[in-house]
Amino acid sequence: MNICSTKYLRDSGYSALHPLLFTLIPLAFAEDILENSDIPSYNTAYGYLTRFGIPEAERIRKAEEQMIKNPDSRIAGGSPSAPGQFPYQAGLISDIIGLSGNGVCGGSLLSARSVVTAAHCWFDGINRAWRFTVVLGSVTLFHGGTRIQTTFVRTHPSWFPLLIRNDVAVIDLLQAVQFSDHELTNQQHLSHVTLTVISNEICSIAFPSVLQNSNICTSGRGGASTCRGDSGGPLVAEVAKRPILIGIVSFGITFGCEIGYPAAYARVTSFLDFINGEIVN
Known about the structure:
Pfam families: Trypsin (PF00089)
Protein name: Peptidase S1 domain-containing protein
GO biological process, one term: proteolysis
Strand order of the largest sheet: 2-10-1-13-14-15-12-11
Organism: Leptidea sinapis
Number of domains: 1
Low-confidence stretches: 7-36, 74-79, 181-191
Distance between the termini: 29 Å
Structural class: alpha+beta
């Protein structure tokens, strides 16, 4: 069974399946490094939009513009996504109340009018978005594809940013989209990585105070992981050649996705009642 996560314009190198081991910086030491901040090092969801979402959106925008100017340029690391390989992948560009920059997240198309993402992509405990531009059928985030703007977003009623509980939201699309292998360009700016799911017992060593049964984790061994800007994106298992959404990117370690820490996701099976109740068919 293959486990895969997708991402836009990721710079770090990826490796395939690894043993269920990882190297950890002690959390007590890590938290001390966060100078002038009360946000724990493991909580990348709280304040996400200004801490990660806006800077990552700018990085992706500039990288896309550079690739348009120089089509022969390549992204270091990552595996390029083939046209139509991940037709369920959604890119999200957020407009944020009181801020001029855009945030960036990922999502998964569940029905012709519904996308699931992380709640912190809409409200991160400090900042709140007021509109999403949902990008479908494109391997670039700021150029091409089907682009639908919407303000209809429902976060889980028990979403609690400080403890990263119930980090799930469903987006309503104002127009229905077609499920198909979208026609994509040859400029492969969306990449994917194969990851290893690890037990929550192992993952809790990295995140002892926040990890819940409603989370699922992947190993970060070898620098293979989700990273800044991947929030809300899909963790998919291939079962009988069918993609099954099992996780929604939720949180990781502040100090970078390449240092070997696991990544944590909202476990989709724990939120099926909420998701199914909010899907627009």
